[in-house]
Amino acid sequence: MKHNVDIPMTVIGGRGPHGLALHLLMQERGLNDYALVDPATHWLPLYGPQGPMQATGFLRSPRELDFSLGQPQREMRAFVDEDGSRPLANVYSLKEATCDRFNESTSEAQRAPRAAFWRYANCVAKRSGADQKVIHSRVTKLEPYQGGWQVQLSGASRFSTRVVLLASGLMPQLYLPQSWQVWWQHLPEERSHHAFRFDYRQDLKGSKVAVLGSSNISAWETAIKLAEAGARVTLLSRRYGPIERQLPFAPHWLESDFMAQFMALSWDKRKRFLKKPPIPNSSLPGMVARAETLGVRFVHHAHVQYASELWDGVQLQYKTPRGMQTELFDHLVAATGALPQARTLPYLTEAACRVKAPIIVGGVGRKRPILDDVGRWKNLPPLYPLGAHALMRAGHAANTLASATVYLPLTLPHILEDAGIVKDALVITA
Ligand SMILES: Cc1cc2nc3c(=O)[nH]c(=O)nc-3n(C[C@H](O)[C@H](O)[C@H](O)COP(=O)(O)OP(=O)(O)OC[C@H]3O[C@@H](n4cnc5c(N)ncnc54)[C@H](O)[C@@H]3O)c2cc1C
């Protein structure tokens, strides 16, 4: 017996890819019992002009990871931009990616420009009337309530819901290596930045900038974007150099059938499967050449040790095989990615601690099974972690748009059941 609630199903982070995909899936089934809570003013803010991905020129994902969800007229290939062009018409397909030489042979013309993809997603959202489902607010607290949740919003209003879809993304869980954290906090804010939060609109002409951490997806993009803005960029890499790949893992991870089979495996088997092959550290093909053309300086095998404020800049110490180096920079930019840990999300910490919900400890091998066999976070009322939080259930594709467009459709039957939404809507076409 389900209790009465204000809204059966709620997406936190509703303007991200998961919220949009859920809206399209529900609309197709004629279902209306959900809300998308998000303070963002447009769809997919991660991909937008001031979002954390602004250094990213082109997506890595294939054309299958769009918002068509079974409707050909919504495919990214069919998108007509404001100027009448079709900027997403030639994006590569998963079939093309299965070719052995794909990672080396793919070209810029086969990739989705990030800004065009963002316009496409906003266009799909607008045409489908998704704005009407948005509660324009930030979730400040989630409290277990009668087998479901009480959702507290900024501005003090609240409502009850049976099921929460946790899709608030990587922010604010930006990552800095532990050994940096002590000294990083003493650096002046206007000189030390995280790549996902950097304001590229500031005047950087002639500034000396160090990008730290080339083992991350955004490091090469960040270095290039800064160099294009006129900065003198040094990229410090712990390794010798990047492996250049378009797709950082085998294409089958993005396929619905493969994901469904993976989801059906036992926890132990999934864990073993995820460990090999690991996701290689990579950048898009041609990135290194572009960085070189723009005069980006690479320092290989550089281990950052310490930094402190000095005069009008930051003095950085790093170790290389030639010994300890000391250098003065105007800005440091950490391209060290994010480390999502659901339990440390400000609006969820209290509830998760109170019931001792299991924690993600980090690193594929060390992760514990925080999700049950249908994708809910154990020990809590129905709450479905999505995106990077679903890595151990969805596989490597959890860190891509496939979490919204492949994983969510596969998990939706359970979500609808928990939400008490009609049973005959449970036949899902992925
Ligand atoms: C640099 C970079 C490059 C990437 N490149 C690709 C690529 O090429 N191809 C690909 O498939 N994937 C790529 N990804 C991953 C992909 O973008 C994500 O997997 C996808 O956006 C999934 O969304 P998310 O869960 O991270 O949420 P996000 O897209 O981050 O959305 C989160 C939403 O939550 C909202 N929110 C946050 N806190 C709250 C709160 N308290 N209350 C309410 N709302 C809140 C935010 O406003 C936002 O709208 C990339 C990611 C990064 C960082």
Number of domains: 2
Low-confidence stretches: 424-430
Quaternary structure type: single chain
Q: Which term fits the overall shape? A: globular
Report the β-strand fraction as a percent range: 15-25%
Bound molecules: flavin-adenine dinucleotide
CATH class of the largest domain: Alpha Beta
**CATH-derived topology of the largest domain:** FAD/NAD(P)-binding domain
As a whole number of angstroms, the C-alpha radius of gyration is: 22 Å
Find the CATH superfamily of the largest domain: FAD/NAD(P)-binding domain
Order of helix and strand elements from N to C terminus: EHEHHHEEEEHEEHEEHHEHEEEEEHEHH
Number of strands: 17
Mean pLDDT: 90
* Biggest beta sheet attributes: 7 strands, mixed
End-to-end Cα distance, whole Å, is: 30 Å
- Summing up helix and strand content along with how strands pair, one would put the structural category as alpha/beta
CATH architecture of the largest domain: 3-Layer(bba) Sandwich
Helix proportion range: 10-25%
What is the helix tally? 12
Q: How would you describe what is shown here?
A:
Strands 1, 2, 3, 4, 5, 6 and 17 form a seven-stranded mixed β-sheet that branches. Strands 7-16-8-9-12 form a five-stranded parallel β-sheet, covered by helices on one side. It is of the alpha/beta class. It starts with 6 loop residues before the first strand and ends in an 11-residue tail after the last helix. A hairpin with a 2-residue loop joins β13 and β14. The protein has two domains: 7-172 and 339-425, FAD/NAD(P)-binding domain (3-Layer(bba) Sandwich), CATH 3.50.50.60; 178-245 and 280-334, FAD/NAD(P)-binding domain (3-Layer(bba) Sandwich), CATH 3.50.50. It is globular. 24% of the residues lie in helices and 20% in strands. It is built from twelve helices and 17 strands. Flavin-adenine dinucleotide binds at residues 12-13, 15-18, 37-40, 45-46, 52-53, 56, 59-61, 65, 138-139, 167-170, 217-218, 347, 386-387, 399-401, 403.
